[in-house]
Design goal:
582 residues; 3 domains; 62% helix
Length: 582
């Protein structure tokens, strides 16, 4: 647990510096409150660091030393800006003893929740192995030939690689998801504080409502709780989607305050575009957010052709490392999709790529063939519906999301509806995209929560905000505490943290580091010039030494025997090649 808290403090400092520097480049004057700028900077900094590490992995292994040098260089570059140094000093002046105590209480509570043994299936199946490949060797050519899932590119794995050095013995892979939960929790309390101080915007009420939906789901629902204690990219996507919408609402609320900005200035609307493009590098399930954020950037102040060019440049710069990494590992920039795949020496066959693609987002291929006369989609959806309670709950939430939309259309004034339109578009497009591609509850969660949260926020703001402010004012007058808003969270969170920490740390060894992820039995095998480890009676390698895979095909060999597995892998061409141009 101690390792998690220390790393989070270092990451918060780093991400804040990087994010504030970028906010100043974007001239984001719409975020004037200290708390808002802090949260936006943290999310931006997290994206910047993830993409920078993924870019570095193209040429260097992401060892702790390489990660430290990169972080130090980026921080020094950020501090070259006088405005960044000024904001850093201003933030430091707000760090009172009460604020530090609040933060430590929240951090300890979250650390106690995430300091458990990692048991998420996908972590053993490929997450941890991919992280280890990046940490030891960087981006390796043709690694998808060893095991198809090793070709899945995510900047979140690059973000985790320097933090998962071999010295920690496969104990700390959940540190990154705990970090985003920490940011999301801080964001909730900052927005709640705005509400308690009667200075809330619609974006604050939205974030409070959305957090009250998502945070309990992530912490209490068994499947999401299991994923939380892992390096899975599903968790950051949940909170980055939520935060991108929050930024869009915040910018829309303050659009009049920067309407007079120079036409050549970089508009603040680029912030959600940057966040959503970064989210796509973490997981492709964020594509709907990127599409709508792009439209928001292009049309938010009236259409101008130059914005299409700017949007294209921003998106290209952000996702280029992911596309290049995909080409290196599998020959496909958006692997496992066969779109734009190249016929390279390390490319899997097109048939293999299509097979893995169907296994990840081909809904009708996940069940047996339907009886004659029954449409395959209806047959697949029926089997999907009956496969788990979570999917039945998800199927119920989808039509329920229609009601908040109807309310928003009827109740919101025409001149204000523009702000909510973007949220509705993200939610609707996201639900449709996930339903058609990969209808898993963990993928749909960020989109399913948007419309109910927005509906609650608008309804509460229109009908109960004045009453709420009156109650808060009267309660404040009854207590002689100047810092009542900060004192109450300290009391409640201290109690929660004490209980959770006591439960989590019955084993005193967890006070420093979590337990190791499980170990498996394996046998050593050899195919061509590749010596590898194969799990026994299992398909998951977990923390087994590299290279580990179920089976290496006989047409795969080392790209460069002198470099070993660090040099990558190639496919031996037959006289009748299996690669067929699409």
């Amino acid at each position: 647990m101690t390792y998690f808290v220390i790393v989070w403090i270092l990451l918060l400092t780093t991400c804040y510096l990087l994010g504030i520097a970028l906010l100043n480049v974007f001239q984001a004057s719409c975020f004037t409150r200290v708390g808002d700028r802090l949260i936006v900077a943290l999310w931006l900094g997290t994206i910047i660091l993830s993409i920078s590490l993924l870019t570095t992995s193209l040429v260097l292994p992401l060892s702790p030393l390489v990660g430290a040098i990169l972080v130090g260089s980026l921080c020094l570059l950020s501090l070259l800006s006088k405005r960044t140094r000024t904001e850093l000093l201003a933030l430091r002046s707000t760090l009172s003893k009460e604020v530090i105590l609040e933060f430590l209480t929240i951090a300890i509570a979250i650390a106690s929740l995430t300091t458990h043994q990692v048991t998420w299936y996908d972590t053993g199946y490929y997450h941890y192995q991919v992280i280890q490949w990046l940490e030891k060797f960087g981006t390796v050519p043709g690694v998808a030939l060893l095991f198809p899932n090793f070709g899945f590119t995510s900047s979140w794995f690059a973000f985790a690689a320097p933090l998962n050095a071999e010295i920690f013995g496969s104990r700390v892979s959940a540190v990154t998801n705990g970090f985003v939960l920490l940011i999301a929790t801080l964001q909730f309390f900052i927005c709640l504080a705005h509400c308690l101080k009667r200075k809330a915007y619609l974006s604050d009420w939205f974030m409070v409502s959305c957090s009250l939906i998502l945070l309990p789901l992530v912490v209490l629902v068994s499947s999401l709780e299991t994923i939380l204690v892992s390096p899975s990219p599903d968790i950051p996507i949940i909170f980055i989607v939520e935060s991108t919408v929050w930024v869009i609402l915040g910018i829309s609320t303050h659009k009049k305050s920067f309407s007079a900005m120079s036409a050549r200035a970089i508009e603040p609307e680029v912030i959600p575009l940057f966040l959503s493009a970064g989210a796509v590098t973490i997981k492709l399930t964020a594509l709907p957010v990127l599409l709508i954020s792009g439209l928001f950037f292009i049309f938010s102040r009236g259409f101008r052709p130059r914005r299409i060019l700017v949007a294209g440049i921003v998106i290209t710069l952000v996702i280029a490392p992911m596309l290049i990494s995909g080409v290196i590992t599998s020959g496909c920039p958006v692997y496992p999709s066969s779109l734009f795949c190249l016929d390279l020496p390390w490319s899997p066959t097109l048939e293999d790529i299509k097979h893995i693609s169907k296994g990840t987002h081909g809904v009708t291929t996940w069940v047996n063939s339907p009886p004659s006369g029954i449409h395959p989609w209806l047959w697949s959806l029926w089997h999907w519906f009956n496969s788990s309670i979570q999917k039945q709950f998800m199927a119920l939430l989808i039509p329920l999301s229609i009601f908040p939309t109807i309310y928003l259309v009827k109740k919101v004034k025409i001149d204000q509806f523009y702000e909510q339109l973007w949220v509705i578009l993200i939610a609707v497009l996201g639900i449709i995209f996930i339903t058609l591609q990969s209808p898993f509850f963990r993928f749909a969660v960020p989109y399913l929560g948007l419309l109910p949260a927005l509906g609650i926020a608008v309804y509460f703001k229109d009908n109960f905000e004045d009453t709420f402010n009156t109650i808060v004012e009267r309660l404040g007058s009854q207590f002689p505490f100047r810092n009542i808003h900060s004192l109450l969270p300290i009391i409640y969170l201290s109690l929660i943290a004490s209980i959770v920490t006591t439960y989590a740390c019955i084993n005193s060894s967890q006070l420093l580091l979590p337990p190791q992820i499980q170990r498996i039995s394996f046998v050593k095998k050899q195919v061509n010039d590749i010596a590898y480890f194969s799990p026994v009676q299992n398909v998951s390698c977990w923390a087994t030494q590299l290279p580990c895979t179920i089976e290496v095909l006989p047409n795969v060999k080392l790209h460069n025997s002198a470099k070993g597995i660090a040099g990558g892998f190639v496919r031996v061409r037959s006289h009748n090649p299996l690669w067929v141009k699409p």
